[in-house]
Amino acid sequence: MTQLNYTYFINHLKLNIARKNYFFDIKVNNKILKLIKVFYKLNIIRRFVLITPYKYRIYTSWFDKYSSLLNLKNYSRSSNPIRIGLKSLGILKTNTYNSYLILSTSKGLLTHQEAIQYKVGGFLICTVF
């Protein structure tokens, strides 16, 4: 079985949004399910449905006129992950007002705005702009 990690899911999501697919099926573990819930809060995913144990159907959000506006950049990696502290998040907040940074923190997966609210830093997973 393949290693289910953030990169695997983000690449599938990017590919299906680019193809303008209404949905796609993917195997999911608890770690990726948390990322799906964050993308759902950001309205990148319209909904997600459990088909079989550990297999979900993901319905993507895309818009005809504005499909080029959504960009996902993956920064998740096992060696040398990018760590962002609380001070850096404060600086990035002013520079990235239309973007979201998704961080893996001690409180779970959070956007950079939620991380500032909880006063925690973390490892960068991806950016959405």
Key attributes of the depicted protein:
alpha+beta; Ribosomal Protein S8, Chain: A, domain 1; 2 domains; 5-stranded antiparallel sheet; 33% helix
Topology:
Blueprint: H1 6-18, E1 23-27, H2 30-41, E2 45-52, E3 55-60, E4 72-74, E5 83-84, H3 86-95, E6 100-105, E7 108-111, H4 112-118, E8 122-128
Antiparallel strand pairs: 1-3, 2-3, 4-8, 5-8, 6-7, 6-8
Helix pairs in contact: 3-4
Provide structural commentary.
With 129 residues, this protein is of the alpha+beta class. The chain folds into two domains: 6-69, Ribosomal Protein S8, Chain: A, domain 1 (2-Layer Sandwich); 72-128, Dna Ligase, domain 1. Helix content is 33%, strand content 32%. The protein has four helices and eight strands. It has helices at residues 6-18, 30-41, 86-95, 112-118, and strands at residues 23-27, 45-52, 55-60, 72-74, 83-84, 100-105, 108-111, 122-128. The strands form two sheets. Strands 4, 5, 6, 7 and 8 form a five-stranded antiparallel beta sheet that branches. The relative contact order is 0.18. The model has no long low-confidence stretch (mean pLDDT 89).
| Number of domains as seen in the coordinates | 2
Radius of gyration, CA atoms, in whole angstroms: 15 Å
> So how many helices?
4
Low-confidence spans: none
What proportion of the residues is helical, as a percent range?
25-40%
Please report which band the strand proportion falls in: under 5%, 5-15%, 15-25%, 25-35%, 35-45% or over 45%. 25-35%
Instruction: Write down the secondary-structure element order.
Output: HEHEEEEHEEHE
C-alpha end-to-end distance: 32 Å
**What's the CATH class of the largest domain, please?**
Alpha Beta
Strand count: 8
Please identify, by name, the CATH architecture of the largest domain. 2-Layer Sandwich
Average pLDDT = 89
CATH-defined fold name of the largest domain:
Ribosomal Protein S8, Chain: A, domain 1
Q: Which structural class should the secondary elements be placed in?
A: alpha+beta
Task: Summarize the main sheet.
Answer: 5 strands, antiparallel
Apparent shape:
globular
